[in-house]
Amino acid sequence: MPTLLLCSATDDLSDLHAVFREQAARRMPELQVRLWPDLPDPAAVDAVAAWYPPDAVIESLPNLRLISSIAAGVDHVLGPAQAHPAVPVCRIVDPALAAGMAEYVLWSVLYYHRALDQALQQQVQRVWKIPVQKPAHQTHVGLMGLGALGSHLARVLCDQGFTVSGWSRSARHINGVSTYAGGDSLDTFLQAPDIVVCLLPLTDATRKLLGRKVFAAMKPGAALVHCGRGEHLVEEDLLEALDRQHLRGAVLDVFAQEPLPPSNALWAHPRVVVTPHMASSAQPEVIVGQILDNLQRVRSGEAV
């Protein structure tokens, strides 16, 4: 019997499994949907839907026809190498992702713009002092990454009155936004923002980009909001920049190791906000529908 395997080494996917089973029963009644580690016959698996799959699972499936991320990116599915280079690899495209990301980043920007980080530090000390407040146009937000998410976010922040600039690998034009392109312009871009938001994809060029060199180029007292990929960040360099007070603080949603280990120093740092990869996610019905659509296409000999 054809099988779709849902798996993750980091997250509980039981709720998503229930949605998969309900939709598959209506659309593809012959399909078994299994949740790792329930896998009686690896040879029966046609498709994998995954988020950080357990080690060697994908390599152990000899008859795969489809590999799908359950999110917008695929680097966490592929790992350092593609075990089945002939098998199509897909991601989820959900228009609601941009809206969710904009909500999260807008909250993070307001956290620093309205000095809520200072108010929380004062609460610990039981200090009653109104932090300096300023209009939105006096806070400059710099976006690293101007793809679909970054471009939407730039417009949202402009509509809220913030001064916005953006940096990307290739040139982009967004009304009301100062844009920079290419590696040679990165240091210039980093000099002005009060808050730098990372939304970059993960590539060889961006891996460990958020490190000592970038932090040194940022404006003294600037804050970091990181919603890109965990592997962008050199955690030790961030902690060093925070401890010497070159950076004001950081809101971090993605990490090289997820879940973030309890022993990681980021948890306890007084000027770091840790959130569990929640900035934005596709709706379960969208995830399941797109993966089942692609599996039907593969089985019919069509392109995904």
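(ticket continues) Second input and output from the same batch:
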Amino acid sequence: MSRTPFPPMRRPLIAILRGLKPNETEDVVGALIETGFTAIEIPLNSPEPFRSIEIAVKMAPEGCLIGAGTVLTVADVERLADVGGRLMVSPNVEPDVIAAAAARGMVTMPGVFTPTEALAAARAGATGLKFFPASVLGPSGIQAIRAILPPELEIAAVGGVSDRNFADYAAIGIRSFGLGSSLYKPGMDGAEVHVRAEATIEAYDTVYGGTR
């Protein structure tokens, strides 16, 4: 079993750009990078997602993690690798998908909700776990499951999380988040995303001090 480590990030925040179109990618992704985001996920149920991912990969600076969400098959992983994606986020635990992404050196973050799913993902070699929906589990639910997991796993709270509740998760030692509609909704331009991203970065740094 190979486990790709989670790269060091000043702010381990993953921007989830569900619904992004290729012709919007440069504007929106550029706004996120400018404000300090270094991980960007474009879900595969977006319009022409692999085109958008390829555009984002080409414009992103070194050290910026670009990839796909809603990855369901090994074929998806192969296409993601072809366009240079380095982040694989899935809504479920599929060992073959995790293994295929790990074999290509990708950071893997499968979605989990229960202890059984979390341990299965760990056994499959996942880099980290996306606890989803975090708003249902809450910090206490994630904390209870985390107690049985390998300590090297990156733990991210995703779903119903925004800059308003970073402190709740900080209290249990969670530093990584996937942020969707609080940052981006389909149709937003780069200027709108920039404003939201700046507010998010400011809130994160207030709680965490801006260091990792």
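Agent notes: The chain has a mean pLDDT of 95. The longest strand covers residues 107-112. Closing as not reproducible unless the customer responds.
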